[in-house]
Every structure is written in structure tokens, then in C-alpha cells.
Fold:
Amino acid sequence: MTQNSHATQPIGTTILVVMMEVDKADDEVFNKWYDEEHLPERMSIPGYISARRFMLEDGDDLNRGGVLRYLCIWELEDESPLQSQIYNDQNANPTPTKEAAGGVVKQRARGLYRQITPAVGAFTDNAGYTYPDGRKFAAV
Structure:
């Protein structure tokens, strides 16, 4: 990152990245579960900070390189919510909606990432970059 950047946004230090592949014909079942049940249930667990869902742009189906169609980025304080009793109880008691959605997920990839730079917060500088020799680069 740039030497002029400052970590200013108070955020968690861990993200859970989940990618899922679902046929377009099953989008309604999958999205209903994710948006109306899964997001609210997970966000009720202490230590979950936020969640954002994404869908791969139409037309980007070729040469994906392992990228799946749906992506959710869960921001966590740390990894402890994934070891909580509430999390375990939610997983042990699937609803009919969750079971239906699970039946349409063709592929899933998941990774838990710990922030390494900056130590806290996020880089938010828009002022440009100063090279070690003093030259400046800024967006015009």
C-alpha cells in the first residue's frame, strides 16, 4: 500500500469469503434462503459485523479460473463467531428453506482470511502516491 495511506475505518480483522455455484434456474430458491434467512441468522451472532453479496457479471462465464457465480463477504471481529454455540446450533438445525437451497448449490468454496495490512482499519487515501525519490503520482 502507499506510504501516504492511513488506516481510519474501524472494521473487523477477519473476513469469511464464500463462493457458490447455482444454476440460473435455481436462483429464486437460493436467493430467497440467502437473503431472507441466512444473512439475518448469521448477523444475529455476536462478532459478525457485516455481510455483502455479489453476483458475477453476466457474460463473464467464460474463463472464470475457479471463480463461482455467487460471492458473499462476511466481515467478522475475529474467527470466534464460527466457533460459537449459536453458530453450531444454526448449522445443526437446518430449516426446510436451507435444505432446499442446499440442494441447488452445485459447488462451494470458502476461506477465512485474517487481515495483515494495515494492522487495523483500512487504507482510504485518495491523495496519490509519493515515490521514494520524491516524485508524486496522483489521479487526474
